[in-house]
Design goal:
By secondary structure, this protein is of the alpha+beta class. It has three helices and ten strands, in the order αβββββαββββαβ. The strands form two sheets. It has an eight-stranded antiparallel beta sheet. Strands 1-2 form a two-stranded antiparallel ribbon.
């Protein structure tokens, strides 16, 4: 009986938590962000906007050691005309490392930024897809600039 009560209380808490966060906000490593109104929030860790998509994956420290590189290797195997360049950036004053990637799909060139590290004690990997080349911070969409800064 106590087990059923505990399940009921947990489900109420989860329901309340889901309702208490505004559907126009996302939680990125404990930082509440408000995407532009024209963007769509998909799940808890993805924002889809015109010209770009931002996704983040929470990990543990063990996953952080190998998973990002495995993900990038899989992209390299899957995508055509794949090119990557090492980059570093900061996210809310936490250092991240990763790659700026370009690839060809159906005759068009697309771009990704895959960066990873620990932000606010949370191991995380950011996967950003862009239709325009991210040459400088200023060339990144404003919402992405709120998440990280290229070094």
């Amino acid at each position: 009986m106590r087990y059923l009560q505990l399940i009921f209380l947990c489900s109420l808490f989860i329901s309340y938590s889901a309702l208490s966060q505004d559907a126009s906000e996302v939680d990125y490593c404990g930082f509440i962000l408000t995407p532009p109104s024209e963007c769509q929030i998909s799940g808890e860790q993805e924002v889809n906007c015109d010209g770009y998509v931002v996704q983040w994956l929470y990990m543990n420290n063990l996953m952080l050691k190998s998973m990002p590189e495995q993900f990038i290797d899989q992209l390299e195997d899957k995508l055509k005309k794949f090119s990557k360049k090492e980059i570093s950036c900061t996210s809310f004053d936490y250092d991240l490392e990763g790659y700026k990637i370009s690839y060809k799909n159906k005759g068009e060139i697309y771009y990704k930024i895959i960066v990873y590290g620990v932000v606010n004690i949370q191991p995380v990997m950011l996967n950003i897809s862009l239709s325009k080349e991210p040459k400088t911070n200023e060339s990144l969409p404003e919402f992405i600039q709120t998440i990280f800064t290229l070094n």
